[in-house]
Write a structure and sequence with these properties.
CATH class: Alpha Beta
Largest sheet: 5 strands, parallel
Radius of gyration: 16 Å
Strand order of the largest sheet: 1-6-5-2-4
Strand content: 5-15%
Helix content: 40-55%
CATH architecture: 3-Layer(aba) Sandwich
Number of helices: 6
Distance between the termini: 60 Å
Shape: globular
Number of domains: 1
Number of strands: 7
CATH topology: Oxidized Rhodanese, domain 1
Order of helices and strands: HEHEHEEHEHEHE
Structural class: alpha/beta
Length: 143
């Protein structure tokens, strides 16, 4: 019984800490299919934060804008793009979800948001098969 209650407490704490997209200080998650749909409908600002060589190799997901996360002004550029689009939630995608999670945290810390992480990424991860395996459309990037 004690183990069951302890497990319920852990689950309850996890649920309480689960992120939502109700404020700039929080984040949430989307799969690539929903991110693509919302980007095309204008409900989110989808940003591909990978490197130019990665964009060239695979293309950029349709509806996404490429902004290299290594830019020294990355946070300012994302914030400006969000402002230009009326404060839409920002969704970040990278190759496998590692960099998007890190940059989600950085943007939240900079009070940019709401932020949405796409943990499957373009190439897939433990979260799922990813943009390319799901056969979502891409746009060629030529620099």
């Amino acid at each position: 019984m004690m183990i069951g209650l302890a497990g319920a407490g852990v689950l309850g704490a996890g649920y309480t800490l689960a992120p939502t997209r109700s404020s700039a200080a929080e984040s949430t998650f989307l799969d690539p299919v929903e991110a693509h749909k919302q980007a095309l409908s204008g409900d989110i600002l989808l940003i591909d934060i990978r490197r130019p060589d990665e964009w060239k190799r695979t293309g950029v997901g349709q509806g996404a804008i490429p902004i290299d996360m290594r830019r020294p002004d990355f946070i300012q550029v994302v914030s400006a793009a969000q402002t230009e689009r009326g404060g839409l939630p920002v969704a970040l995608i990278c190759a496998r979800g590692v960099r998007s999670r890190r940059m989600t945290f950085a943007l939240v810390q900079a009070n940019v948001g709401p932020i949405i992480d796409i943990p499957e990424g373009m190439l897939g991860s433990r979260a799922g098969p990813g943009w390319l395996q799901r056969k979502l459309p891409v746009t060629a990037w030529n620099g």
